[in-house]
Amino acid sequence: MRRLANALRLGWGKRVLPGRLRRALPPGGRAILAALAGAGHEAVLVGGAVRDLLLGLTPQDWDVATSAGPDQIRALFPGGRLVGAARETGTVLIPRGGTTYEVTPYRAGSLAGDLARRDFTIDAMALTPAGRLIDPMGGRRDLAAGVLRACGRPEDRLEEDPLRMLRAVRLAAQFDLTLDPALSRAIAAQAPRLQAVAPERIGAEFGRLLVTDRPAWGMQRLRELGLLAQFAPELLEMVGVEQNRYHAFPVWEHSLMALALVPPVLHLRLAALLHDVAKPRCLSVDEAGDRHFYRHEVVGAEMADALLRRLRFDNATRARAVHLVRRHMDLHLDGPATDAALRRMVRRIGVEHLDDLVQLRRADRLASGKREGDLGPDTMAILDGIRRVLAEDAALKVTDLAVDGHDVMAAFGRGPGRYVGQVLEALLEEVLEQPERNRREVLLQRLQEMAAGGWKGCG
Predict the structure, then answer these.
(1) How far is CA 340 from CA 330, 395, 413, 421, in A?
(2) β-bridge mates for residue 126, sequence order
(3) What confidence tens digit (pLDDT) does each residue in 393-402 have?
(4) Is 4 exposed, middle or buried (0-12, 13-18, 19+ CB in 10 A)?
(5) Who contacts 59 (Cβ-Cβ below 8 Å, separation ≥6)?
């Protein structure tokens, strides 16, 4: 049904392209096209912007192809910055009104040659400033048919840039397309070439795939085409690993279901994909034949951290994803749900991670195939308790204490050192148990007692 809707929308889209272009193209883009045309050069919009306009989407990037050379472009736009190894074919980046436009000379000397050398037909369309569609490779037809097809021989396009193999899967997942069989065969044959691509480029494309509407489909294609083995072989360890009586599905299938069930936020999608990545390495079977995965959350966090570092994910995304993997079992208490135990739980998890952890826990439970409801009664009771203790505004971290490091140093008569943090942590443990002690005069007195008694935690 979605493809039929796309076909109908594309049929209408060609007629309304001029209006869509007028509404979507910022003034800076219109000025660039007008300046190039005024200087006697051809200039058209190309690539993803044309595809998005056809689909009724708002373009995120604006690329211009032109008959002008880099020097001619820079003469018209002195503030432009030339990028690319070859001076005669380099792209000029032109900032205008908060948007950066990529203006590139025609490849192969003409617009037809340029479009024929692009990666996929859906990105090989051009749009004139008046809104006329130029589509020699049949990109609009392939969009309507729901097929991702390479321009020309797939082998040639993939050899030019092996990252296109990963990009093909991402585009297919993003726009609900199937891979053309010839393209699939070429990807499978050339998959090892992906190892030559810079890890940060792989990580960026992989991240884009994970936040599409079909991340699980995309992960299956990466596995089947041999791409996953090239940059994340540890994920393949999950394939075929059976779980225990609490799970209906093996680790790989369970992880993909969880991936699809969390919102399309990158650190959440990464955490869902990787939350059980260490189960194969932590598998043990007891005398009764029951399977266990002790400490898989600890080992999994280490594996997730190593993978995300290797793929050059930014520090904030990596830290949040790894923390969720490490804590994905933490919405559980072995003993009574006392207020002190709940405060310690919140301290471990971090208030800022609670909502994400609930989303992950919900997806994990639903993907087990054995549980009813998205959160069990025990978890719901814990969350109710957490809401209660948070409403009390009790100290949950060192910075919430009524004293600080300066007070510690004054009480102990010493300068800065590791002991300061250790003392504050010890005070926090006491306050977690008895929140009413978080008063300045009480904690200052406690500091004096700790200093006078030769507190053993000092390092």
Answers:
(1) 15, 11, 32, 21
(2) 46, 134
(3) 778 888 889 9
(4) exposed
(5) 24, 48, 49, 52, 53
Tell me the CA distances in angstroms from 324 to 84, 267, 350, 356, one per residue in order. Answer: 39, 9, 10, 8
Contact 193, 162 (CB under 8 A): yes
The dihedral over CA atoms of 17, 22, 26, 28, expressed in degrees to the nearest 10, equals 110
CA gap 47, 122 in Å, rounded:
8
Q: What is the dihedral of CA 42, 43, 48, 54, to 10 degrees?
A: -80
Rounded Cα gap, residues 200 and 195, in angstroms = 12
For 131-185, what is each residue's pLDDT tens digit?
A: 999 999 999 999 999 999 999 999 999 999 999 999 999 999 999 999 999 999 9
Nearest to 274 by CA among 238, 250, 310, 241: 238
Report the distance separating Cα 402 and Cα 443, nearest Å: 7
- CA 246 → CA 82, 207, 250, 283, 372, distances in Å? 57, 30, 11, 15, 12
Residue with tokens 């609900």: 176
Q: What pairing do the DSSP bridges indicate for beta strands 291-292 and 284-285?
A: antiparallel
Q: pTM of this prediction?
A: 0.87
Q: 105 CB contacts (<8 Å, ≥6 apart)?
A: 65, 66, 67, 68, 69, 70, 73, 88, 89, 90
- What average pLDDT score do residues 359-388 get? 86
Q: What is the dihedral of CA 22, 146, 222, 355, to 10 degrees?
A: 60
Question: The tokens of 366 are what?
Answer: 């639903």
Residue 40 CB burial class (10 angstroms; 0-12, 13-18, ≥19)? exposed
Contacts of 221 (CB under 8 A, 6+ apart): 169, 172, 173, 179, 227
**CA 200 – CA 251 distance, rounded (Å):** 27
Are 226 and 188 in contact by the 8 Å Cβ rule? The answer is yes
User: What is the tens place of the pLDDT at every residue in 308-326?
Assistant: 999 999 999 999 999 999 9
